[in-house]
Amino acid sequence: xxxxxxxxxxxxxxxxxxxxxxxxxxxxxxxxxxxxxxxxxxxxxxxxxxxxxxxxxxxxxxxxxxxxxxxxxxxxxxxxxxxxxxxxxxxxxxxxxxxxxxxxxxxxxxxxxxxxxxxxxxxxxxxxxxxxxxxxxxxxxxxxxxxxxxxxxxxxxxxxxxxxxxxxxxxxxxxxxxxxxxxxxxxxxxxxxxxxxxxxxxxxxxxxxxxxxxxxxxxxxxxxxxxxxxxxxxxxxxxxxxxxxxxxxxxxxxxxxxxxxxxxxxxxxxxxxxxxxxxxxxxxxxxxxxxxxxxxxxxxxxxxxxxxxxxxxxxxxxxxxxxxxxxxxxxxxxxxxxxxxxxx
Length: 344
Hints:
Blueprint lengths: L1 H4 L7 E5 H4 L10 H14 L9 E4 H4 L7 H13 L1 E7 L5 E7 L1 E6 L11 E6 L1 H9 L3 E5 H6 L3 H14 L6 E5 H7 L10 H19 L2 E10 L2 E11 L2 H12 L5 H6 L4 H4 L5 E2 L10 H9 L7 H14 L5 E2 L2 H10 L6
Antiparallel strand pairs: 1-7, 2-6, 3-4, 5-6, 8-10, 9-10, 11-12
Helix pairs in contact: 3-5, 8-10, 14-16
C-alpha cells in the first residue's frame, strides 16, 4: 500500500498490483469496460484497498470521463463478480497455499436521482482473495488514468499494462514471449486470431499503435522463429523523451474525433467522417467541433491558440473569396493549419 500512498498527490496515476496486470485467463478475459472499471475502483479505494471495508465514491467522480448507463453498470458488475483470481502465496501460518475467488464481493450503484449536496454513490467491497493479493504484492506499476480511459481497444489496454509493469525495471527494456503466452496476456480468446497474420493485424499491431499514441511509451517488436515458423515475439519498449510526452499529453487532451486518423498519419481522413456539407464557424470558437480535432492534428507543435487560428483562417478565406461552407472546407482548413508556424 506504500506504493499507493506515495502517489496520493498524483490524480492521474493509477497504481496496480503486478499480479492483477499479469492476470491470464485461459477461457475468458475482462472486457475493456470491465478492465477500466476495475482500475478506477482500485484507484478510488487508494490505500484502503486491502482493508476489509466498504468503499464508496460519487458516480460523478468515477464517471468524469467514462460514463456507464445503468444497464452497462449491471453487466460490468456481473463480469467483475464472475471473473476469478488465482493467487499463490505464503499464508500467516507460513504454509504455501493457492487461493481462488472473484474480484469483487459486491458492487452497488444508486439508481435514484440525487442533488449536488447528496450525490449518487457507487459502493463496493473487494473479495478476500483480492485483499490478500493487494496486501502481499511487492510488484507494482503506475499507469496513467487518462491513458486507461482513452484506450479504445481491449488489447491496447492489456499491452499497456504488460509493458508498464516491466517498464519500472531499470535495466530491462525487452522481453521474449511465446506466441501463445502473449495471446493469453493480451486477452485473445483461445479460438480467435489463431493464425499469426490475423493476430498481428487485428491485435498486436493496432495495440502497439494505440499504446504508442496515448501512453508515453514506445513499443516495438521482432518476431522469433523456430525454423520457418513464428513461435514468439520479442517486445521492446522505452519511455518517450519530453517532446514525445508533450505530444501524448496534447493527444489525451484532444477530442477523440480524428484520433485514429492522427494515429495512422492521415489527417485528411477526418474530413471523410464529417457531414457532406460542413460549415466553418465564422464567429465564436471551433472548440467542441470537428474543426478542433483537425486543428490539433495538423498544427505544428507547440500549437498556437485555437481561437487565433480560427480568426486568421476566416480572414484568409474571406480575403481570397474562398467559401467557408461546403464539402472541401475541412480539407482546406487542414492545409491552412499545416502551413502555420509553431507558437512562439
